[in-house]
Amino acid sequence: MFFFRYTHCHHLSYYKMDYKNLSLLELSELIKNKKTTKQEIYTYFLERTKKYNEELNAFNTLPPETPTFSDENTLPVAIKDIFCEKGILTTASSKMLENFVPPYESTVTENLKNAGFVSFGKTNMDEFAMGWSGENSAFGPAHNPWDPTRIPGGSSSGSAVAVAAWLVPAALGTDTGGSIRQPASMCGIVGFKPSYGRNSRYGVMAMASSLDTPGYFTRTVRDAGLLYIATAGHDDRDATSLTEDIEIDSKIWERKDLKWIKVGIPKEYYIDGIDTGVRSTIENAIAKIREMWAEIVDISLPHTEHGVSVYYTICPAEVASNLARYDGIRYGSLSNTPGDIVENRSEGLGNEIQRRSLVGSYVLSSGFYDAYY
Q1: Which of 23, 159, 179, 357 is catalytic?
Q2: Sequence-distant (≥ 6) Cβ neighbours of residue 166 within 8 angstroms
Q3: How many whole angstroms separate alpha carbon 346 and alpha carbon 340?
Q4: Could you report the per-residue pLDDT of 61-114, keeping only the tens digit for each?
Q5: Does the active-site annotation cover 241?
Q6: Which of 36, 86, 142, 302 is least surrounded by Cβ atoms within 10 Å, i.e. has the fewest?
Q7: Is the dihedral of CA 327, 196, 169, 111 positive or negative?
């Protein structure tokens, strides 16, 4: 098991301590108490990344050797390769954008840096966030650190792998139809998809605009809350950005129980053929939540059975619209025949992109639009 080798890998003797079992909050406390420095922490994770990335393929672009630190306590956070960062190669794991360097910064990464975090490389992903396995990247698949022969999930595969393998303490991802929650589950870490509109989509390469949601991969729930506070909030540059206050009551962190929580258990989620291991894990989680005094209630979500059908109508339709710009003329690399849009798109976009674009064009076409919408 690959993770076993991590937990017993040789200790880097010139570091004062091993940081890989510490959360963002714990690392921050070490810096504040002058037990370590932000440079030492950064260098520690940089060396781990350089050592293990060749096998895991978690990063498309490795972290810089000499980061720009702010005056605040600065900790590294990896960035899914779909968030535009000014002056930093951002590819969406596509040949079409393999040389694209954005001239502007996404709101989420801008807020993250203003809150005292430092960008730590660009993580691998399914091309343009389309995929469930981490295998649809133009730069090769990411590998699950618990067992590199298995998939890590997708589309935010590299971010999940990097956090699970302790190449970085936290990472950004995006979730359109499970692209944070699913790889987090497969890699055994915390994945948090905030409500749609809580994080701005400005500067995030669009897949399906009415579904795309920036979020986080962390080792602890508290770290996810820390990043949420740092990045979320209203943004005038995103028309779907919510205006409500995002403040989290500080007393929440002090609670030792869940007496204030009501948890619904949808009966539709217990489908025929559910894996026995999955069912056991769910039931154990419910028992644990009940032990912590949360109120468990049975609920029904009757439209669950239609979820996948609805997703595969809305998502490809928006994909077809959003990705029309990647034609090698407005965006992307040119083929040997400049101006040949068909050849440019055939060469520059992977099979999954082409499949979803075709489905989306079909459901939006004359004669079929009314049938599907």
Answers
A1: 179
A2: 6, 20, 21, 45, 48
A3: 10
A4: 999 998 877 777 689 999 999 999 999 999 999 999 999 999 999 999 999 999
A5: no
A6: 302
A7: positive
